[in-house]
From TrEMBL:
SUPFAM superfamilies: Toll/Interleukin receptor TIR domain
Designated name of the protein: TIR domain-containing protein
Annotated InterPro entries: TIR_dom, Toll_tir_struct_dom_sf, TTC22
GO biological process: signal transduction
Species this protein is from: Potamilus streckersoni
Boundaries of every TIR domain copy: 31-167
Lineage: Eukaryota, Metazoa, Spiralia, Lophotrochozoa, Mollusca
Length: 167
């Protein structure tokens, strides 16, 4: 069955059907988002993440948390970060030359890592966007290589498998 929808008209928690996949269920009870994105708000990283969020939401029906859109104005930034990370099933941390120096990424990634350890689940999905000095505590994690020159057809299936994994 083909389903055609206009994204602007979808209620916040509605799932979108992807013709090549089964329907993405809503996040489980107690969660608002499928995926939280941790990245530095610089033009290149921001554009890459925005394209990724757009594809995940429009083509796959995932509900993503992006600080520009989903953080509640008037709320302390740290409270918004905790709320976003704690209310997401997965956290994609984008490592780039710029993000490794980001104060906010340095707050978001450890919260996600701690949640992974406490829940004994792989919640953190590190993505390498540039050659950079990944923080020591994340060097032991397998990352998705999305650096320039690596074809999307190589890293996209790994990203999707990571998002879809439950353990």
């Amino acid at each position: 069955m083909d389903v055609h929808v206009i994204i602007d008209k979808i209620p916040f928690n509605a799932a979108v059907e992807n013709p090549s996949r089964e329907r993405i269920p809503l996040p489980p009870p107690g969660k608002k988002f499928h995926i939280f994105f941790s990245y530095r708000d610089v033009p290149r990283d921001k554009l890459w993440v925005k394209k990724l969020i757009d594809k995940l939401e429009t083509e796959y029906g995932y509900i993503c948390c992006d600080h520009e859109r989903d953080f509640l104005p008037g709320t302390k930034i740290m409270d918004n970060i905790k709320d976003g990370v704690m209310n997401s099933e997965k956290v994609v941390v984008v490592f780039s030359k710029e993000s490794i120096d980001s104060y906010y990424v340095s707050l978001e990634a450890p919260i996600a890592y701690q949640q992974s350890l406490e829940k004994r689940k792989n919640l953190l999905i590190p993505v390498l966007l540039d050659d950079c000095d990944v923080p020591e505590e994340y060097k032991l994690l397998t990352y998705i290589d999305a650096r320039e020159g690596v074809e999307e057809t190589t890293w996209w299936p790994k990203l999707m498998k990571s998002i879809e994994s439950t353990g």
